[in-house]
# Entry
Amino acid sequence: MEPSEYRAKIDQVDEQIVALFAQRMAFANAVAKYKQEHGVPVIDMKREREKLHDVLNASPEDVKEYVPLLYSLMLELSRSYQYRLLGVGTELTRKIESAIDNTPKLFPSNVTVACQGVEGANSQIAADKLIVGAKIMYFTSFEGVFNAIEKGFCRYGVIPLENSLAGSVNQVYDLMQRHEFNIVRSLRLKVDHNLLVKPGVKLSEVREIYSHQHALSQCANFLATLSNIKIIPCENTAIAAQNVANSDRRDIAALASRSCIKLYGLECLKASVQDKDNNYTRFICISKDLEIYPGANRTSLMASISHEPGSLYKLLSRLYALGVNLIKLESRPLPDRDFEFMFYLDLDAPVYSPRFIQLMGELKGVCETFTYLGSYTEVI
# Structure
């Protein structure tokens, strides 16, 4: 047979598949109505396992490995279809809808914001961009920022989440597992690292350079060109600049932002020494209460899944079935559970979409634990 003849036969089979799929979904509709009338849960894992076992046994050997994937997706689509027909609402979906209705239309200004570090830190720069007239309280650690939000000391907190060169801030991801908070806004901040010294100090005099570990890693190529200089990590880039300014020594320098030059009376010995110019840090603005401001089109979630084959696939296939775009997937180890992980997901999903509300109502059924972290816009 010619290729065109094979294609014609494939087209015929596809027409039959579409017709049979529509018929199957119609039967799913009938099952959904029965479940609604009789108070029966949508998910029947025993039935699904039996179905997968039956179709696997009936499959020809040459396609047997593909059949479970096909039917797993089909079952996810059927389940999603039933949820939509039933209009299943949950405590979470009602909470989201309430936040959409009750959050002010404009993001507030002149409110108290928690940041880690000191004046001149990138967190402070991010806070000023996120919140007009921010009244900043500084804390020595990221955990201090989370505690300030939980205890109501500050309305918002600003935390670095990831860097385009150095990757995720793992400490923050680990803290997210231990604290209750909501993300209300995010920001991508262009970051420049500059070698700052006391006025009049030359590069040949410098014997030690201080900065945050992430800043040091982002300037690795520049630091590799220096000899006989000790590199010392510290809590924060601005703290490094502050320590240089307050020290009696003239042989120390800091990698910090340009705002620290005037702030601490320093000079810039070398400007923009990061390895790449497209150096961005993403910051999140967190709050105790759930606030969803107009235009929210990005959603963050945290989920753990069962430690068995196909668990992550079931979660991701639910996103695929509803046409929701996954823009970030991060994993961190779960404490006291060997080789098991918490997954962090960022979704490109307008909060007003019916598919988004449907997804929020369904995810609890495919995850061991599931935490909605908020819907928001990202400032660029």
